[in-house]
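Forwarding these from the shared drive since the link keeps breaking.
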Amino acid sequence: MKKLILMLCMLLLFCGYADAATNIGMDKLNWSQTLPADENITFNGGFVTKMSTDMYISPTTFGAKIDGVTDDTAALQTCIEYAFDRGYAISLPYKTIRITDELSIPSGTTMEGQRGRQCWQQGPIGNGSFIFYDGDGIALNITNPDGGYIYAVTLRDFVLCGRGTTMDNNVGTGIYCRNLSEFSFSGLNIRHFETGIYGDDLTIGHIDETELIWCDVGIDIDFGAQFWISHCNIWNNHNGIKFGTVTSSGILYSQFERCTNFIVADTRDGFDTTQYGILIKGNHFNNDPRIYSPDDGLAPYWNCRMINISNSNDPTHKLILSKWTIETNNIYMYKTDHHISINFTAGDSYAYLNLYDNLFYGLNTSVVAEIGAGTGVLSFVGNSIPSGNYSSGNCKVSGFSTIWDRTEILGGLKLNTTPTLVEGSIWYDDVEKEMKFYNGTGVRTIPSS
């Protein structure tokens, strides 16, 4: 009798569970089949084990061939829309998906694969989960067509590659974001686009452990706040990261190598551009022409900049920088004119551009060189410039032709010693051991107090 009761209980439990979810063994599932009408499905026995709203679905279920040749745009877009309607996540296979048109990414999308990297010069050949965009527009478009915000988009662990093959023939945008908040881009490998990631009103999120390689611009933030770029590899781009109006954000512990401009601060069309509360900390900047051949067709490295602050995009509007902190970076610029270049026009300004405890390497370079007609407060504390094989020790603060409210020079920097008869220029007189400046009519001494 007890055995009969126990068997009845087990039968009731099984029936109840069967009503709650349809279970499909991975070995029994045809990935090209139409999904059952029951939305509460569990794939057992494989990498997909979660239930209900945490379930992962594959674009192969919707007909994607993932052979790197077939156009899988429609299949992947259908998969994205199906996942959005039901709150599922998307699992990208360990193969190449070729798309030829932009994919629309809605709120709440999670799309992830198996991390890999590209290993090609001519053609989309790589390992890991690989999206090859064979077009010249936008690959992944994270924009609300109704003009509102997009929230909670997660892209993780896959390669996104454009169809360029060299630095100067890249086209299109890898990830285009407008009005995106609470985002996470992690473990991506983005390459061969004109712009790797573009953001307009990009807030509250992070880009981490991501590679931006062989793009004209790796990351371009037109407007953003409270986002962090960390532990990334920004390599072989004309411009690594470009900022427009950006506040309360930072670049942390990333590797920058072989870019013309590692970081660019510039105005944007049609309005004054303010950059406030930017932290650049713990990064490594490397530009060594002894490692690379100047004829290999990749990014140029001569006359490069660690940071290029230039009101060049729209000189009719102001560029205003406030509270930039550049701290504990290793800056290895073997051959360059300036580590930090500031080129202002009338009305531009910056307050509290602070450099703390950075290590500067370079040959006959200027740590900071400024031309233009801006105003600002500059602070150097505890920075050092080694001598020897990697540096001549002649790095200096030079070329100032601006109105300074306060300048603090502490640590191992050598000031410019060349007199310049341009109004507002400042230099250090090695003979008289005094700071000098030219006021437009004559040379004057700056009181040591």
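-- next protein --
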Amino acid sequence: MVELKLKVGPKGQILIPKVIRERYGIVPGGYVTVKLGEDGIILRGRPSIQELFKKLEEHRRKMKSMGVKAKLGDLKGIYLEMEFE
């Protein structure tokens, strides 16, 4: 695991290096999720609406090709919070 030392600004802000923002799809005006844990925090980029729709469409096609009809739990693990903000 890579570990970076980032300076915290006077308002508690940190600057995420460009290479990391690009790798995880973090864009200005976008959102990230923060997960609190025993050892620290986990910061994750969230998918854009376009990426979310693409994943949903891929999942739908996969299910259709397998002859499976949609059922409860099919969307487990996909972030839908952005749809309701």
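The beta strands are 32-36, 41-45. The longest helix spans residues 49-65.

- D.
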